[in-house]
Amino acid sequence: MSQPQARIKIAIQKSGRLTELCLELLQQCGLKYSRGRDQLIGFGENMPVDFLLVRDDDIPGLVRDDVCDLGICGLNVLEEKRLEYQAAGVPEPFKMLQQLDFGHCRLAFAYPEGGDLKKIAAIKGETIATSYPLIVADYLQRNGLQGSVVEFSGAVEIAPSLGRAELICDLVSSGATLAANRLIEGETVLESVACLVQTPVKIPAEKTEWVNRLVERIAGVQQVRGSKYIMMHAPRSALTQIAALLPGAESPTVLPLDAVDDKVAVHVVCRESIFWETLEQLKAAGASSILVLPIEKMLA
Ligand code: ATP
Ligand code: ZN
Predict the structure, then answer these.
(1) Is the Cβ atom of 173 under 6 angstroms away from ligand 1?
(2) pTM (two decimals)
(3) Would you say the C-alpha torsion 128, 147, 139, 78 has a positive or negative sign?
């Protein structure tokens, strides 16, 4: 009798900013899944891949303890947990595989409008409210600054008006929440983005094929998002100039055109967005019939 196929597990946020983005990513990797209402597990129907829906703070621990083979969460959460594990003598709790193209934000200090403190270098023992006490304490220590850190698990931005802290260190993306609380953004402690991590434990042989496939597909989806396929006709003599104009392009495919000697067809994948200005420059360099096409899938 053949062995039942080993299923791989990936931990993602249950309900929050990263949830829909992670589910969309898994779908783009070809995963079809079923998930009952309020269920904490989504079952892959066409791949041996299931996902666990948990609080984002629990994701590093699930990956570190090998309950899940893979996990996706913000670098901010990973970094705070990494410092926690480091203090407990665990040097490498998870393997960082890749940064993803969503969940961008920054962990930054913010100061009350009109207050005396305006930059972190001027701190003299004031209290900082944050959900990331280890990252902030580490920053203060590395920069030789004196401050006391108080942990808030939510609503950090109201700590100064409650008289609980003189400043805060919190996640910011647009800055609207800070402005609404009359806080001015200061120095960035960490630029964060969603990341894919893997368990530090060796993946058993029966799982490696699918772990590798999923990781490769995620990389493929990421690459494709900003990439475009460009086709044009161009004079042979302008090929060097044209190649220099294309951002993030690999070496182009150059094809002869029927019954035309001095012109060729050029096909190229560009890994960055193409702006109208670039198309205009290509045209000025002699290119014609320029087409920019979206790419659906790419396997490097
Ligand atoms: P959970 O219930 O899972 O603990 P949470 O409240 O900690 O949820 P969210 O607010 O949903 O988490 O944010 C999840 C992640 O999204 C953050 O850890 C961070 O990496 C990222 N993120 C992106 N932009 C922001 C932002 N403006 N504020 C907070 N987090 C952001
Ligand atoms: Zn959280």
Answers:
(1) yes
(2) 0.88
(3) negative
171 lines ligand 1 (CB under 6 A): yes
Is 20 near ligand 1, meaning CB less than 6 Å away?
Answer: no
Number of domains in the chain: 3
CA-nearest residue for atom 14, ligand 1, is 17
Q: What is the pLDDT of residues 275-300, one digit of tens each?
A: 899 999 999 999 999 999 999 888 87
Examine the domain organization and report whether 68 and 212 are in the same domain. yes
Q: Whole domain around residue 152: which residue ranges?
A: 105-192
Question: Is residue 69 within 8 Å of residue 93, measured between CB atoms?
Answer: no
What is residue 164's predicted lDDT score, i.e. its pLDDT?
A: 95
Going by alpha carbons, the residue nearest to atom 7 of ligand 1 is 56
Cα–Cα–Cα angle for 191, 51, 224, rounded to 5 degrees:
55
CATH classification of the domain holding 114: 3.40.190.10
Amino acid at 203: I
**Over the stretch 254-275, which tens digit does the pLDDT of each residue have?**
999 988 889 999 999 998 878 8
